[in-house]
Amino acid sequence: MQSTTSFDSILVANRGEIAVRVIRTARELGYRTVAVYSEADAGAPHVALADEAILIGPPAVKDSYLDPARILEAARRGGAGAIHPGYGFLSENADFARACTGAGLVFIGPSAAAIDAMGNKAAAKRLMLEAGVPCIPGYQSPRQDDEALLAAAVEIGAPLMVKAAAGGGGRGMRLVEHLDALPGALAAARSEAENAFGSGELILEKAVLKPRHVEIQVFGDSHGNVIHLGERDCSVQRRHQKVVEEAPCPVLTPAQREAMGRAAVDAARAINYVGAGTVEFLLDTGGEFYFLEMNTRLQVEHPVTEAVTGLDLVALQLHIASGAPLPLSQEEVALAGHAIEVRLYAEDCENDFLPAAGTALRWQPPEGAGIRVDHGLREGQAVPPYYDPMIAKIIACGPDRESARRRLVRALEQTVLFGVANNRAFLLDVLERGDFVAGAATTDFITEQFPGGYRPPSPEREHLLLAACLQYRQAAREAGPGRDSARFAGWSGTREVAAHFRYATDAGGEGEGLTDIRVRETRPGYYLVQLEAQEHVLEWLGGSARRSARLAVDGHQFDVAYAYPGPGEIALQWRGRSVQLCNVLSSALAQGEGEGSGTVTAPMHGSVLALRIAVGDTVEAGTELLVMEAMKMEHRLCAEVAGEVSAVMVSEGDQVAAGDLLLEISS
After folding, report:
1. Is the bond preceding 524 in cis, omega lying within 30 degrees of 0?
2. I want to staple 606 with a disulfide (CB 3.0 to 4.6 A). Which of 238, 262, 514, 630 is the partner?
3. What angle do CA 588, 590, 592 make, to 5 degrees?
4. d(CA 114, CA 336)
5. Number of C-alpha atoms within 13 angstroms, CB side, residue 503?
6. Diameter over CA atoms, the chain
7. Is 589 domain-assigned?
């Protein structure tokens, strides 16, 4: 049974948007709030929003947000009576839940026993089979030797999934399409699982091809009541990480909803579940559904459920944690309208979606009817490399799916984020694809729609005209009165001579396309811009120095958001499409250093998980050199050239930043 100890203050053991989200609801309900923060998060919004905030350590998660002792000590110092774990970090750590209870604190979540029951996929699946919940055919036995797994695989048949029993998030997961590939998949999945979760236990499941990922939100109280709040469709995923979520599922029938909801409630009852939880299912093309796993915490995508039910799920968590019964019955749960959420990530979409870090030079979340933004970012704040790359969640709701989708597209077009590589343009592309518009997306959607990875469209003519005009104005401002501003733009001469700009315009990075533009100011605020022998008149109609402006191109007026990330660089957004350009005539940045060479640098911030080579080793092009871990995923770095390893600058366990030199190969 859940503790019924009353509390009037809550420590939020998390960071970013979920910490802000929990603190806001807690304060609205009259609770005193305590935040925790690492040294990297000292200036983060969640720190300022809470009544009190306590430093818990250096940036690394193991020394701060993942250290139970530091969290409990912060609760003692802050006088908190309860701890809300958010999601991620310690939210599904049964030992931490026990430690909270042992310290006389209310853990705002399920019991440690319930977390334990669902924390291991193999044990959870055995429980669900006993409870009569539909499960995917597979192997979940404690026997883990390769002989037993290979024998089970033959019985299950290909294709099948290899999954880490102790975790989620796509780690330790492999699709095996042919059984001869199974030994390698078992070794890779076991290694990744051991590194990520400390356990190499695996399960096997029959692969459900092109399914939908549909999950049910459940709530239980300490009085034996359990209800569900409908479903969410989370099928649009990349590497088993959700990208877009919506409620309700576009294809679920009322009968399927009732059956799936009943199965989810049965799953929760089987472990005496208390608090917010999510039971996840795969829905196959024939309409059959199968238990996937249960997340014993609040989900990232909970806002879409809030939008269609009108309920505040965090408020419900606090209500239940205080020992009160659920305030509504299953019959009183009503779903209305449609809601869609996208996750705005700091990631380099053109570079296999690798996590990114940087400083938010410009951050402007969208506003409008039916729009909600959950975030924990302020303009000028550094986005550190140590944590999950999600920056914000943008949610749109409407009376029907298409109105919600249309509002979300418009909201993304209005979202401005410069200074940090992000997936905003990719999300727009996803929402406008025909299969998504039709509600036909499955878990294979991104793989099918973007088979060669994501490449943004090349800059449009307007982007180039605006970039040159804005950089011309920037050069004039920086030069000051009486100084030659021309040198900043790549030219010299009198005012009548046009400034020359040259931009690389091949967005795919496969060519060397350069575009030349010349700008001349004819009178204050008026510019004659020449592009490909055609002249355009640009007029400055007003705006701030480095943020946004109203301009006219040949009499066509519109707003432009912009920033100057570095020397010769400009980032701008027009009609919701953003580009970053560099005037190569004024840029001193080196181009192409290290490409195809023996110099190996870190492609992202992260840690060195494993070294496969040593100084003196001979390698061929394609040889695996080392494994990095970043944002909960493993990335393997391979040699681009053949030769001898002449230097290794890192050791296993080292933290590295994007661009750091890792090793050198002499050819």
Report:
1. no
2. 630
3. 150
4. 31
5. 26
6. 85
7. no
Instruction: Assess if residue 55 is contained within a domain.
Output: yes
Asked if 622 and 638 count as a contact pair (C-beta separation under 8 A), the reply is: yes
Segments in 103-212 forming alpha helices (H) = 112-119, 121-131, 146-156, 182-197
Give the neighbor-by-neighbor strand order of the sheet with 138-139. 138-139, 202-206, 160-164, 173-176
Question: Does residue 153 belong to any structural domain of this protein?
Answer: yes
pLDDT beyond 80 at 604:
no
Q: What angle do CA 555, 556, 560 make, to 5 degrees?
A: 125
Cα–chain center distance at 642: 36
Residue type at position 285: T
At residue 441, the 3 state secondary structure works out as: coil
Tell me the torsion sign for CA atoms 73, 77, 82, 87: negative
Tokens 């192409």: give the residue. Answer: 592
Q: Per residue in 311-364, pLDDT tens?
A: 999 999 999 999 999 999 999 999 999 999 999 999 999 999 999 999 999 999
**Bridge partners, 606 (sequence order):** 656
Q: Which residue has the tokens 């430690």?
A: 99
- Coil vs helix vs strand at 241: strand
φ, ψ of residue 471 to 5 degrees: the values are -70, -35
Q: Beta strand pairing status for 202-206 and 241-247? A: unpaired
pTM, two decimals, is 0.86
- Termini Cα distance of the chain: 66
Q: What pLDDT, in 10s, does the model give residues 430-479?
A: 999 999 999 999 999 999 999 999 998 889 999 999 999 999 998 888 76
CA neighbor of 182 nearest in space, from 241, 139, 142: 139
At 655 the pLDDT is: 84
Amino acid identity of residue 114, one-letter, is A
Say if residue 128 is in the same domain as residue 266: yes
pLDDT in tens, 520-567: 999 999 999 999 889 999 999 998 655 789 999 999 999 999 999 988
Alpha carbons 293 and 161: distance in angstroms, whole number = 14
Quote the domain boundaries for residue 190.
Answer: 137-206
Q: Are residues 321 and 214 in the same domain?
A: yes
Which SS3 state, helix, strand or coil, does residue 77 take? Answer: helix
Residue 166 belongs to a domain with what CATH number?
3.30.1490.20
The residue behind tokens 């039910």 is 309
Beta carbons of 514 and 505 less than 8 angstroms apart: yes
